[in-house]
């Protein structure tokens, strides 16, 4: 149950922040947002606030922000249709009822001759007295059809009517908010548990190792190696790794006293790259630093961004296969293992996942945010948008391929973890 709760919280936070980025920038651009959804598939819960319905859906495989004009959701009223119209105090149509079955007090029945619900916002037709009338429609009018209410989306409130810049930022904001979330998580870790000092202090010397044989002890502070100042544990490690089988002169400080040792790194048996090791372990002491916590958050975000990008490059160049990828099942099982090590480790895992989600969505593949951004770039270069039907077909093919990849990855996860 703890794993389930942890997975739901992590998944929910990642998807929420991603979609929040789309939502905020859509609102700033004046786009009508019809739905803010966490999860996919059948709706479990829905709350309407203002012009947006906020939903929780069954399948934990993503989420979406549904914007007016993206799914051809505009209402069309054809000549000959009979509609019912409710007027507000200013004489504008505030509700238009299609396929009317329920009578409202003071409803105006109209046989439509002509209608424009996108730009000029009017309905023309004949009323019950065969009188030809024109009714102007309010910008926030509601269209009711078969009991379902849809808020009118004038052309200037649709996604496609906005400038390339506004659309680009609206889509880009999703992945960017994942990076912001990762920064906040890593910064919170720094505030809560402290920041690793990364000092070159030996925490533990393993038995029968080059360091042990040379006389290095727990708590020794490494000051120099071969005359070069060592200011961090990372510098110590990198120096040792590139000097396998080469004697190194260590200058250390023990209880305030300077000492010197000559240590020859041996080749690590666990590494295929033949790096040098001397047999010391490190657990960085932690210190509390309010401002430093945010620096730490930024450093960790950049580090994991580079690391995930490096692994992605290895996948593209064939250095590891698709079998190494994990889907929701793999993420769930890894979360189960990570949760055993406590809340701080779980938070670090969530930060890494958030960066991973942001990077994956920025890939220039159809149906992903990166694919849509590529179409905006092409539009900016050409000076006109790509045909919507052609773009939609590309995204549809992309969705099918991604679903196929998801099935393959999920099957690999099931095989790996349960069989």
UniProtKB/TrEMBL annotation:
One GO process term, biological-process aspect: proteolysis
Keyword Lipid biosynthesis: no
Coiled coil, from the record: none
Co-factor(s): Zn(2+)
Compartments where found: Membrane
Gene Ontology, cellular component aspect: membrane
GO MF annotation, one: metal ion binding
Transmembrane segments: 6-25, 168-192, 341-363, 392-411
InterPro entries: PDZ (IPR001478), PDZ_6 (IPR041489), PDZ_sf (IPR036034), Pept_M50_Zn (IPR004387), Peptidase_M50 (IPR008915)
Sequence ranges assigned to domain PDZ in this UniProt record: 187-256
Chief location bin: membrane
Membrane topology according to the record: Multi-pass membrane protein
EC number(s) from the headed UniProt entry: 3.4.24.-
Keyword vocabulary terms for this entry: Hydrolase, Membrane, Metal-binding, Metalloprotease, Protease, Transmembrane, Transmembrane helix, Zinc
Similarity comment text for this entry: Belongs to the peptidase M50B family.
Protein name: Zinc metalloprotease
